[in-house]
Each structure stands twice: as C-alpha cells, then as structure tokens.
Design brief:
This protein is of the alpha+beta class and 282 residues long. Helix content is 30%, strand content 32%. The protein is built from nine helices and 16 strands. The radius of gyration is 20 Å and the shape is globular.
C-alpha cells in the first residue's frame, strides 16, 4: 500500500473537514492511504546530523508522498530531501507563494499583466511609484487578504503602516470586482470560473463574490498552456484580472488552492483527477 500524508494547520482543518474527508476518500478509491497530519504536531530539522521528521515529539517514518496544504516551502523542501514526493513541490510553493517572484517568472513567458512594481517593506517611499488609484498586495498574502485599494495619500500612508512583508504595487486599470480562476491539474485545464463582486474590488468567493463557469477561447487556452508547460504543477489555481476589453491579465497562482467555487459551478471531480495524477507520478 502506498502511504501518504495530507498536512493542514489545525485552524484550517476545522474549516476544511469535508474537503479533507473527500481527499481521503478519493485516495482510498485509488488504493492510496492518506492520513491527516496537523502541522502543529510536526517538528522538522536536523537531529544527530540527519534530517528528521517528528510527530508529537516521536521520530516518524516519512510517507511515500505528501499533499502539503500549508504555505511553508521549507517544509516541502525538507520532505523532498528525505525522499518524499511532495505535492505541490517546494519549487512551486516557493515561487507561487511570493507574488513578486511569480510575476517575474510569468513575465518571461510573454503573458500580459498590469504594471507591477516590486517594493521592499524597508524601502517604501512616501511618494508611490504609480498614480492613484492603485492596488498594493503583500507578497505572501492569499485569499484576498493583505490587499489594499489605494485611492489617495492617506490610504497609502495607512497601507505603509499596516503591511508586514514586502509588497507589489499594481495598476488598478481593470474591471474591478471581477477575475477569472483557472483550475489546473498537472498539464490539464480542468475548468475556468468567473468570479464577480458588486460590493468589493476583490472578487473572491469567500468575500461575497459570485462564481460561474467561463468558457475559455482557444487563444486563452493557448496562453494558459504556456504557463502550464513552464511549471510542474500538481493542482493550482491560475488567476487573471479582466481588462476593459475583456482581455485576461495575469494576476497570481494559488498554490494551496481550494475548489469551493468549482464545486458550486460545476460537477467535475477535481480531486479524483488530482489523486490520479499523484498515483501516476508515484
């Protein structure tokens, strides 16, 4: 039997219990054993000059594979170096959980995006590098959090006092309150979901937005294909802003992506596809 771990924080476990059970059930159907591991109960490091993993202070035998649902690229890397096949990989986790680094890589592919400035927290100036209004995002933020809509100098000063990490600063010259999430497993586009909000500049479903299936054009699929072929994804969500003429503009890649919006808008079983990808990779 192939044994795997699905790793969550304790807080996220309580919010995602049905999703975790779905994951475990899909793994069982394909003869994979999947065990929930709480990140708070794990200790990783070097003991007696050897890399080790402990669970509840007891040395643990590494699993055959791990699905890491926390954002901690070092954890992914540590497990990989111990011979564990990790989904998503440490490379994907390291890039996609840093918005500036993600934009750096995507720009190499010729994918259109809004004007984006990288800014270190320690060197942010009083005079912003873009004209008002614009959007500032902490590079490690996710789920629509740590995102600031800056309309005037007071907003900018408040943002500077609030941020905890480096940021990216982006033009807001797009259709605000609307974006597109493309769900990807491996090299396959599973579905695209158009998210819209009439009450917030962010379209995240958790923040009150709606979710509907979007039919990608051949040209859009070709563009997304360049991203898919560049990376070695497990399961991710690739997000796009919508320009004033309906064009897709790259926004970010969600490493630890959920599929709540996909389940609401479509009956596709994305976890079945993901588990199949994992089994084939093993």
């Amino acid at each position: 039997m192939i044994n795997g771990w699905i790793i969550y924080s304790k807080e996220d476990t309580m919010q995602n219990s049905s999703y975790i059970n779905w994951f475990i059930d899909e793994a069982n159907k394909q003869s994979l054993t999947l065990t929930l591991i709480l990140r708070e109960e794990m200790t990783i490091g070097i003991v007696d000059n050897k890399q080790c993993i402990q669970i509840n202070n007891q040395v643990a035998e590494p699993p055959d594979f791990a699905i890491v649902r926390t954002i901690e690229p070092l954890l992914n890397l540590h497990m990989e170096n111990m011979g564990v096949r990790v989904f998503n990989s440490s490379a994907i986790s390291g890039i996609c959980n840093n918005k500036a680094l993600t934009h750096h890589h995507i720009n190499q592919l010729g994918i259109p995006m809004v004007n984006t400035i990288y800014a270190k927290r320690e060197t942010i100036q009083d005079d912003p590098p873009l004209a008002f209004p614009f959007i500032a995002k902490e590079v490690s933020g996710r789920g629509g959090k740590q995102v600031y809509f800056i309309e005037n100098p007071m907003d900018w000063m408040n943002c500077k006092m609030s941020i905890q990490t480096d940021i990216i600063i982006q033009s807001s010259d797009v259709q605000l309150g609307k974006d597109l999430r493309v769900f990807v497993v491996g090299k396959e586009i599973i579905a695209a979901i158009l998210r819209e909000s009439s009450t917030d500049f962010r379209a995240n479903y958790k923040l009150g937005g709606s979710a509907n299936i979007y039919q990608l054009s051949d040209q859009e699929k070709k563009m997304i294909g360049r991203i898919i072929n560049y990376f070695d994804f497990g399961m991710v969500g690739i997000d796009f802003l919508i320009g004033h003429n309906g064009e897709l503009l790259f926004n970010e890649i969600e490493d630890v992506v959920g599929s709540r919006t996909l389940s609401i808008a479509d009956d596709v079983n994305i976890l079945e596809k993901y588990v199949t990808l994992i089994k084939d990779a093993l």
